[in-house]
Amino acid sequence: MQHLKQDSASDISELPVLNVTAQMVLLCAWRTVKEVSLFLGELSEQAPISSAEDSDECHGKSLLTEEQVLTIGSHLAMLLVETKHRGAFEQAYVGFCKLCGRLWRHPSARLHNLPRLWMKELMDIITWGKGTKLCATRRSAGLPFMVQAFLTTELQVGGNTSCFRQSMAALLELADVTDNRAGARRSINAISGTATEDSVGNSTASDPSNIAENFKILYVSTESSDCVDTVEARIHALNILRSLFRHSVLGESVTPYIAQGVIVAIQGFKGKTWAERNSATLLFSALVTRIFGVHRSREELSIRNRMTGRIFFLRYPSLYEFLLEELKEAIASMEECYSSLQPGLFPVLLLLSRLYPSSLEGTDSNLQLSVYAPFVHRCSLSSVLKTRVLAAKALVPLVPPNQHPLLLQELVTISAQKYTTENHRHGLLLQIFHLLEESLSALSVSKEVAERVEQWIVDLKWLLPSETGFQICFVTSEVFLRILHIVSRRLFMSVSHSIWQEICNVLSVDLLRSQEEVPSRMIGRGIYLRHAVQLLLELSLVLHPTHTPTPSFLKDMEQLLVHLLFHARYEVVKIALSFLEALLDTGDYILEDEEDSTLPVDKSFYRHVKEWNRSHEGVLADSLRSSPAIGEILVRQMVPKEQSTFAECCWKTFCVLSHCPKALLRMETAAEGVLRGLLQRCQKECEGIDWAVLRCAGALVKIMQQENVPLTAEVTSEVCCTLVEFSSTDKSSTCRLTVANILLDNTSWLQGTMTFLSALDVCTLWTVVMTLLDDECSHVRELISSLAMHFGCTKFPVMPQRAKDLLVEYFVHVMINLDALMCVVCLVAWCLMSPGNDCDSGLLEDRVFDKGEMNEFAETVTVTEVACGQLKNLLCREDRTQLLETHLPGKVKDWLLHMCRTDMSTMSDCGESHTLAEFIKEADRRAVFSTGDSHFLCVNPRTEILTVFKTKKLMEAVHGSLGSK
């Protein structure tokens, strides 16, 4: 519907109504389905229902009959089964829940048993039906919602929960990997057993089979029982189970079925079709969340998302043998053929990685986690990298801490053997890394580990590239570099200085060798280089013996960085730029989400470099900041090239240049030309880089003022326009934070003391301040509010709303001495100013899906009241006639019209002889409510109401000042 041609809607109607577009039709259709579903649900929940056995008097007092209830149920069921639009069937689910809840509570046996009969009918269709419109894709669409409605309402009513128990049994049997439809049929037949018993004793009831036939809601024949694909039925069952296990209302009720659900999900990983494996994955994810809770961190597994093996297996004892058998089967197959895939191994390892041993393990049960350790260790043989990674993480909690040194020694011995396969060696090194990480993260490092770690490094040192060639696997070497990394940070003194120096030399030779010597296709070379550069830079810092860096050390570091910045691989350049940024960053800029990279840098790397620089008094940072060689390379990388440049390196380069802007002054091009080029780059660069270019431009402006480099009015006007553009809500929060930082770095521009700034430019910058005070990002509002303290308006931090009052008052104080007319013009503009998202309201009213989010902090009415108050006081003090009757220059008039977002065509034709009084009079004439009959497609009157209110406030301020005089 969204992609229908909209040619018929291209002609703008003469009437003030919205165009009927394809989007509008889709919206109205969805809302119709929503309202009808909710109305039918409310009607079935509240209205009296008469049954066949009721008396005539009851029939007269009832609003709905059994047939009408059945019709409502059929309509809602059809929406749930056949509709694929999630918004539509979610609302149908709400109505269907109300209907089922009413039926479960109804005293009539016939109506009370309807949900049970409908559930049986639905399960029959899933298992045996043919020719249905059930959607096997889109997670079975509304089918899980329908089953959820039956079962949740039964539990909410209370009493007998046989339907829930029998339905869960049927779904679990149906989801089994074996074709167990016969067992599922027995469970399905048991669902309606209670309904049949209740109906037999009723004298007015018909035969039970007729009851089920008369109260069908889907009207689908289930005669041909062997025609439905078992895979499709299993997919539906898995999707329904996922929905039930996720539902909060069923939290305690589904607990007895979790173990069987886990078994079914793990077996589903072995399915022959992608759809089956996908549904099993989703079910397993829901079960993990149900067992361990919602994942609290993306990076590390929280202790709250883990469980002791003792508690886990006491709750789900059947999983102990099942998980063990799955591991044994996978290991046996893996040892027979290394390249064989074991899909069921991954979920088993994922479960085990969330378990850890209890201090009471083995005291009250024989189900011990240590039994799994040998099998998880053997998973290092897997040919699947993700399996080896997960096995290494799962092994750590299975091994007691006192056994870590012995196991580490065994793993190192096997890894050092030449005949060990690369996959196996990679898996073993991963286990070494995670075991060492666990051991070294403890409060006290094991003495045995500290004594042996040097020998372990010597035994594995051959995994680094040699000077003669590349007889290694870089995927394996990368893990060894990670091992060296954590050892260098925690046990640096346990390894001799000569070994660290030798490692530095090897890495340096490898990184600085000519690219012609490196084969073009080497798997894992990129990620290896990333860790190699990090380790080399960190070791180069910590190997320096003295507290104060020597000149030779500073020169060596400069040469090393020059070589790294000239490297052909972007991974190396990116880490070198990150190292420079960590050294040079003084923390002046506050950015919300700066790290947006496909090649993330370890946060501990930043922290380690910053701590070293702080402890060495920033000598290295000062040296690199003033280095001509580093500055020249950064300027070269800033210049656009014909060949493609990686975005990560591009924005990092601009970030580093913003910390050493003097390098831009040393360019052959004049500083003003460089600034103009940066402003043009802001417009061209993609989102994610534009803010870094703007930040660099802001730093250049600041250093130009400090070095007394002249600025022309033309360039400063471009800077002001760029700041206005990047302060709009269309830009990212990082862009708006950058604008706020630039204003804080150049507060003299706001004080009107810069001769190269016109009064109009100063008003433009203050308008940016007003916009940012209403920004939806709290960091932006807090940052720009600090201007009030900087200008001496207050001694303490204030809320943005209070800062707005203080800053408007300070603005009037500044502008009254600079240009009183522009001060009044700006206050009038703020009185009538519309928020940025309303600027094209006339063009976007019929675009119902892409209007953007509403800014809840855009208090335009508050700005109007503050500006009107200051305007009234100003007109009372100054010559009112001179300010209002003076002709406005063309630029000022255009800026005023743009700020008010007004299409005053009659005013724009009057040339430059326009006055502020005429503008206010014309605004008052246009600010009237439109008359005529209301229509649901009429333009939203919100903008109209705001315009009338603001104009009224403006007129009160103008006339109030006249009365005061």
In short:
This protein is an all-alpha fold and 965 residues long.
**What is the number of strand segments?**
2
Principal-axis shape: flat
Mean pLDDT: 82
Please describe the biggest sheet, giving its number of strands, its sense, and whether it closes into a barrel: 2 strands, parallel
Strand content: under 5%
Unreliable residue stretches? 1-16, 199-212, 221-227, 593-599, 837-845, 903-913, 932-939
Q: Classify the helix fraction into a percent range.
A: 55-70%
Radius of gyration from the CA trace? 36 Å
Instruction: Classify the secondary structure makeup into a structural class.
Output: mainly alpha
Distance from first to last alpha carbon: 63 Å
Number of helices: 49
Strand order of the largest sheet: 1-2
